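Quarterly update, task 2.4: flavin-adenine dinucleotide-bound model.
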Amino acid sequence: MGNIVVAIKQVFDTEAVIAISGGKISDQGVKLVVNPFDEFAIEEALKIKEAGGADEVTIVSVGGEKAPEAIRTALAMGADKGIHVDISSLGVIDEFVAAEYLAKAIATVPYDLVLAGRIAIDDGSSQVAVRAAEVLGIPSVSSILKLDIAGSTATVSREIDGGTETIEIPIPALFTAQKGLNEPRLPSMMGIMKAKKKDLTVLTPADLGVDATAKSNVLEYSLPPARAAGKKLTGEAADTAAELAKLLREEAKVI
Amino acid sequence: MDFGLTEEQQMVQDMAKRFAEDEIAPYIEEDEENHHYRREILTKMGELGLLGWSIPEEYGGNGMGWMEAVTALYEIAKVHTSWRLSISGNCWGPAFTINEYGTEEQKQKYIPGLVSGEFVGSFAITEANVGSDVGAMKTTAEDKGDHWLLNGSKMWISGGHTCDVGLVYAVTREGGGVKGLSCFVIDYRDIEGCERIPIHSKVGMWPAPTSELVFENCKIPKDALLGEEGKGFQICMWMLNNTRMGCATGSAALAAACGEGAAQYCNERIQFGQPIGKFQAIQHQIATLKLEEDAAKYLVYRAAWLKENKLPSQQATSIAKVYGCKAAVEGANLAMKIYGAYGYSTEYPCGRWLRDAKQFETLEGTSNIHMGIIGGIELGYQPNR
Ligand SMILES: Cc1cc2nc3c(=O)[nH]c(=O)nc-3n(C[C@H](O)[C@H](O)[C@H](O)COP(=O)(O)OP(=O)(O)OC[C@H]3O[C@@H](n4cnc5c(N)ncnc54)[C@H](O)[C@@H]3O)c2cc1C
């Protein structure tokens, strides 16, 4: 097998405090990281390569001007080269547009396997990677927990309700990674130094010749309501215990 | 002037933080309680290149220098102070000094192992009766023609009984002192006549082992000598000017840990119907913590920058070290107050912070000694190296 492409997205750090300003989610002072689920995809690609199962791992990211930071983190983990589709000129895009760009960018390199995260923790659509597979005309399986490649066949496992499903599928194919697929490595200091010298190609929308306009339109962003104040139960212990059990069952619906 | 981190330094910071949170934090309580040195952590540090600062890549160095080193050490020390010691114990102590003074053979034999974490390292200067006055040390190394014979003992040696290799300073000329000391690289796996006794009585730094070393007619090979015979004092001072950055950075990081912990606690703890952070008196305590944290941190970066640019850094290093200790002790003190009774409980980290903060005032030159260096340089009594 030759080349593995890993699609990654730069997202807000999980600890970021989300604020809305001017109708948009503000990225003011927010730390950006590689989407945690994409780290599983990167790790899997690197493991396959290290086991002799691939020659090269290419990282592709469709994103704004800071996306190269995420790509370089993946390069520091050990990926070979990166492609950044710089969409900062595009304004707001939807999953359809993102998938078109991602697919076109993936198609600029030879690939036998495409890996991505199961979900991006920011908008949580779980659509872009699998839609890119559609555009590329290759099969896909989502949320995999195990991946084995033998010749031109991949065997993957995924968790389904009450058990595990094992699927055999010809490659090239696209898989999205679920937490548990592996333990992503941290980039080493040597890796960080090497990343500086690795190829990172920047493509503009014009370079890819994609003609796509968003099919959906976000009307509004709103923050979840502030947490309501706690409830204090007073009275005899036996009564409050019964009351608590009732509330936990009927209101909180946790028991 | 630029106060920001480069993209690589940012990556170093992120990585070190994650490393500390994933690989060190889960074991803090257990290892504190059992005074356990978890060697696997050192191995992992080596694998990730966290022990290879300012070391040529041909010996396994990570290709990075002082700015990146203090950035990483800071994140590690913030999570658990004990683990900042390994960067001095392996890298800045033995590896970096061997790189500066060693023969090609010594470099090849020791540096890669120290940097990869295959070896645990150490350096031994202090003796039971010799602390600040390094030149007064009594341990001797006698030239026996085809070998050296070590006699004497060393005290308070970090990693003394867990290390594989380390530097030992000893008297090789009658009277010792500035002209009579030499430095040796000892391969502890390969010598007889050295008893290594763990010290269990430390007030803090429990997962970082400390030991007494007793040398009794201990034969060490002729080529164990590092640098020139009689130049041990100079080598020692050169080394300390580097290893001290471990203390400076570690203490600054401890101050930051106290500040962050205290701020979080202030937002959670409710008294008189509001978070305690709403009280002005507490706000001033938090402000003091922040002042100390920032001042200590930027003094560390200044010293690191001078070192990276090969400019005289001794005074700046001493300033960072003295200030860092002060920040750490004051930070730990304030944190314990802010956490109230919980601060005094072993269930919270305040006790560990305070115990660990106090070491910095003594280790690698007491604050008095550093004040002497700072003042002496300022008055023109000694050069700033
Ligand atoms: C946890 C820990 C780990 C250590 N690890 C190592 C190690 O790895 N290797 C190693 O070699 N050593 C190590 N040490 C020893 C440490 O470096 C010494 O403790 C330190 O140098 C101070 O020496 P001392 O404790 O003998 O104090 P002393 O020198 O006896 O000082 C006692 C007091 O007198 C003051 N004083 C002394 N001289 C002067 C002066 N000229 N002017 C003003 N005040 C003065 C000091 O400031 C101090 O307050 C370690 C110590 C500790 C606690």
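Highlight for this quarter: The radius of gyration of chain B is 21 Å.
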